[in-house]
């Protein structure tokens, strides 16, 4: 086992910052948000919701890619535990402007926001600007839908979005290098200096937080600590800390395990590493898995997708996990591994109950395999929620259909939010097989959904609403196939 360290290192304000958890009173699950706000000169990062819903705490992370170039990602700092930023650069609103000749020089994004009156009360403004700064560093001339997607994780209730979008469009018309471009070589040198691969092993009186960097290290740790919580993006389990104030005794953070971050494409389909970020998968899916791309485009926000992983979404086995109906329709499989070997389980068999799976205590999810569907197969997903983006589904569904001369040769219907776990509508499917694909057939099939499901009533919707919505989504799918 490689050398271990209780010290994390990152770059902030152009300098390397070291945090030794043996010499400070910080816990390993202390959030980046609260750490930054504890500093005298980083109060611009705001806490609105503490659960990744408002974007007021947005910061940008700079990290080295495989070519030692800096890539910039907007994230919700309220969902990030301090050890997760080891080896990265943290950029906050205070870093965007700089002093020159006794004057404050605003970043082009800030100038445009001022010019277009993109702020009123100003509470949410730092988060908006940081999301736009990430966009500025990654795009040359983004289309309107790309701008809106980048802002979907930021809420404003007094200015409105039109002026903010105008400011964004304005700044890209005359885009030029900013001071971050000029400083990149220096930051790259600093990141290389702290980018060591020593296992981070933080032991406090109440917690053990371990961050491995290789798959072998991760498997050995899971074998020794089967009770440990596995995290990668932590967008789900972080709420146990931020909202429930829970102390999680054992954590293994696999977010930097190189073998788990890969995305592989071949003639058969895709293999997404368990720690691959959802935003990266979304962009890859645009080329060959259109339905997965579409559902990920309304999954959380860009800040959340820059943290969250497909392995985490599958492993949580949430009954309303947006990706699960889609992955079922794609006939995805889950790849598991332990020190004893590997095994592959179809996703349809992997989830066995409410947040229960077939994973064994000493196993890790290493990848999700998604076969490429045949060209004559139609796959379409829908999501009902109060907000289009950044909201949990009330009801979601994905359809997989194969027709032969307008006769249903094969169909799969997988619903989320209708049972204790993502579940197929088997009776509805069986009724439709070998039937004519017509409005009359679909209208009759809707009645079988009530036999397939007995949904609960909760804060999001009543039982009756869910049943009506599920039936209407089947009708909508039929109508969309006619177009």
Write the layout of secondary structure elements.
Elements: E1 4-5, E2 7-12, E3 15-20, H1 32-38, E4 58-64, E5 70-76, E6 89-91, E7 98-100, E8 103-105, H2 108-115, H3 125-138, H4 144-151, H5 162-173, H6 179-194, E9 199-203, E10 208-211, H7 215-224, E11 229-231, H8 238-242, E12 250-253, E13 263-265, E14 269-273, H9 278-288, H10 290-296, H11 302-305, H12 310-316, H13 323-329, E15 333-338, E16 341-346, H14 347-350, E17 351-353, E18 356-357, E19 364-371, E20 377-384, E21 395-404, E22 407-416, E23 423-424, H15 426-432, H16 439-452, H17 463-482
Helix pairs in contact: 2-5, 9-10, 15-16, 16-17
What does this entry look like structurally?
This protein has 483 residues and is an alpha+beta fold. It folds into 3 domains: 4-94 and 182-253, Beta-grasp domain (Ubiquitin-like (UB roll)); 108-177, DNA polymerase, domain 1, CATH 1.10.150; 261-482, Uridine Diphospho-n-acetylenolpyruvylglucosamine Reductase, domain 3, CATH 3.30.465.10. 33% of the residues lie in helices and 24% in strands. The protein has helices at residues 32-38, 108-115, 125-138, 144-151, 162-173, 179-194, 215-224, 238-242, 278-288, 290-296, 302-305, 310-316, 323-329, 347-350, 426-432, 439-452, 463-482; strands spanning 4-5, 7-12, 15-20, 58-64, 70-76, 89-91, 98-100, 103-105, 199-203, 208-211, 229-231, 250-253, 263-265, 269-273, 333-338, 341-346, 351-353, 356-357, 364-371, 377-384, 395-404, 407-416, 423-424. The model has no long low-confidence stretch (mean pLDDT 95).
Primary descriptors:
alpha+beta; Ubiquitin-like (UB roll); five-stranded mixed beta sheet
């Amino acid at each position: 086992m490689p050398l271990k360290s209780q010290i994390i290192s990152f770059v902030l304000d152009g300098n390397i910052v070291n945090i030794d958890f043996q010499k400070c009173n910080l816990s390993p699950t202390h959030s980046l948000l609260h750490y930054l706000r504890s500093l005298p000169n980083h109060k611009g990062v705001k806490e609105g919701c503490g659960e990744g819903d408002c974007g007021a705490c947005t910061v940008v992370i700079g990290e080295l890619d495989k070519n030692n170039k800096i890539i910039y990602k907007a994230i919700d700092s309220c969902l990030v535990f301090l050890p997760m930023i080891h080896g990265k650069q943290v950029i906050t609103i205070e870093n965007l402007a700089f002093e020159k000749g006794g004057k404050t020089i605003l970043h082009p994004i800030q100038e445009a926001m001022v010019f277009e009156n993109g702020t009123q009360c100003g509470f949410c403004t730092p988060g908006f600007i940081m999301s736009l700064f990430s966009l500025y560093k990654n795009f040359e001339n983004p289309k309107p839908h790309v701008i809106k997607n980048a802002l979907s994780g930021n809420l404003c209730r007094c200015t409105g979005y039109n002026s903010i979008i105008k400011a964004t469009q304005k700044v890209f018309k005359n885009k030029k290098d900013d001071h971050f471009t000029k400083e990149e070589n220096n930051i790259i040198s600093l990141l290389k200096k702290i980018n060591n691969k020593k296992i981070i092993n933080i032991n406090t009186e109440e917690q053990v937080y371990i961050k491995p960097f290789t798959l072998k290290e991760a498997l050995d740790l899971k074998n020794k600590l089967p009770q440990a919580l596995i995290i990668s993006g932590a967008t789900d389990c972080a709420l146990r800390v931020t909202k429930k104030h829970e102390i999680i005794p054992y954590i293994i953070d696999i977010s930097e395990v190189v073998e788990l971050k890969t995305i592989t494409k071949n003639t058969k389909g895709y293999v997404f590493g368990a720690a691959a970020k959802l935003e990266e998968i979304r962009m890859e899916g645009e080329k060959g898995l259109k339905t997965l791309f579409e559902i990920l485009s309304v999954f959380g926000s860009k800040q959340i997708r820059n943290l969250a992983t497909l392995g985490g979404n599958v492993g949580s086995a949430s009954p309303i996990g947006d990706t699960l109906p889609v992955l079922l329709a794609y006939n995805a499989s889950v790849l598991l591994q332990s020190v004893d070997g590997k095994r592959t389980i179809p996703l349809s068999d992997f989830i066995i109950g409410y947040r229960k799976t077939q994973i064994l205590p000493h196993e890790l999810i290493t990848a999700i395999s998604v076969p490429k569907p045949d060209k004559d197969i139609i796959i379409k997903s829908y999501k009902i929620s109060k907000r289009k983006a950044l909201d949990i589904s009330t009801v979601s569904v994905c359809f997989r259909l194969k027709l032969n001369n307008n006769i249903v040769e094969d169909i799969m219907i997988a619903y989320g939010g209708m049972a204790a776990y993502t579940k197929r509508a088997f009776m509805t499917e069986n009724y439709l097989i070998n039937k004519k694909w017509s409005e009359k057939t679909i209208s009759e099939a809707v009645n079988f959904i009530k036999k397939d499901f007995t949904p609960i009533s909760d804060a999001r919707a009543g039982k009756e609403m869910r049943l009506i919505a599920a039936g209407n989504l089947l009708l909508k799918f039929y109508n969309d196939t006619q177009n």
